């Protein structure tokens, strides 16, 4: 009976965590504020405790998880509506370097030293500070770099070239299955798709891992391969 109780509470905590995480929104780890991170750990700890510890009243940990989630959701709504509140919770961007000047007070505020700053510059592809105009510490903890105009990569606009804009491609086949709605969105049908596959010498749609259709109505097909790579050139 105890095992059944553990199974039920574990399933209940997983379902609750799933629902609460959906309500709180999907974010990458790099986009989480410190407050979001701590709350996420706390909610997860309560869920784990609930699944492994006997409670006289199982509703208490459930209520605690919901309260934490509601606080996160409320703060998220407030930060979306109030700039002042957003600055209190998430902070604001800090300029660490600009036009050849390193701001020591800003570095101390960011808990960085010069060696760490240079290391972060190198990992971003900047090995010489003289090629950078401005470095900003964003509220999510990442550094943003504004390169000097004469050191940034050449663009088509610089060369006065007329370049066609790229657009998203539609995934019309995924793992051997036709994505009907995506195919309709391209203005094509399954008859067109099968004829295109035959042009790629593919008779069975299950052979296709992925097929995409671009704005020019060109189908790009990526076939499945069940064989292991015979050689390794990466290590």
Automatic annotation (TrEMBL):
Signal peptide: none
Keywords: Cell membrane, Membrane, Transmembrane, Transmembrane helix
Organism superkingdom: Bacteria
GO cellular component term of the entry, any: plasma membrane
Broad class of the protein's primary localization: membrane
Transmembrane region(s): 6-25, 37-56, 62-79
Residues covered by the YetF C-terminal domain: 81-213
Annotated Pfam families: DUF421
Membrane topology: Multi-pass membrane protein
Cellular localization per UniProt: Cell membrane
Family indicated by similarity: Belongs to the UPF0702 family.
The name this protein goes by in its record: Uncharacterized membrane protein YcaP, DUF421 family
Protein's organism: Anaerosporobacter mobilis DSM 15930
């Amino acid at each position: 009976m105890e095992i059944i109780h553990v199974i039920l509470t574990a399933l209940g905590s997983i379902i609750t965590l799933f629902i609460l995480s959906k309500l709180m929104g999907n974010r990458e780890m790099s986009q989480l504020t410190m407050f979001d991170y701590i709350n996420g750990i706390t909610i997860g700890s309560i869920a784990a405790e609930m699944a492994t510890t006997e409670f006289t009243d199982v509703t208490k940990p459930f209520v605690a998880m919901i309260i934490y989630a509601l606080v996160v959701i409320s703060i998220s709504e407030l930060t979306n509506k109030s700039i002042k509140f957003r600055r209190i919770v998430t902070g604001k961007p800090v300029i660490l370097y600009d036009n050849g000047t390193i701001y020591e007070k800003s570095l101390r505020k960011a808990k960085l030293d010069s060696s760490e700053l240079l290391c972060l510059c190198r990992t971003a592809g900047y090995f010489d500070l003289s090629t950078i105009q401005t470095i900003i510490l964003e509220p999510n903890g990442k550094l943003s770099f504004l390169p000097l105009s004469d050191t940034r990569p050449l663009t088509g606009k610089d060369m006065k070239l007329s370049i066609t804009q790229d657009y998203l491609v539609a995934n019309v086949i995924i793992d051997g299955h036709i994505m009907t709605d995506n195919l309709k969105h391209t203005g094509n049908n399954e008859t067109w798709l099968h004829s295109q596959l035959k042009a790629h010498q593919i008779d069975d749609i299950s052979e296709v891992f992925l097929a995409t259709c671009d704005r020019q109505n060109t189908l790009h097909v990526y076939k499945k391969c069940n064989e292991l790579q015979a050689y390794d050139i990466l290590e």
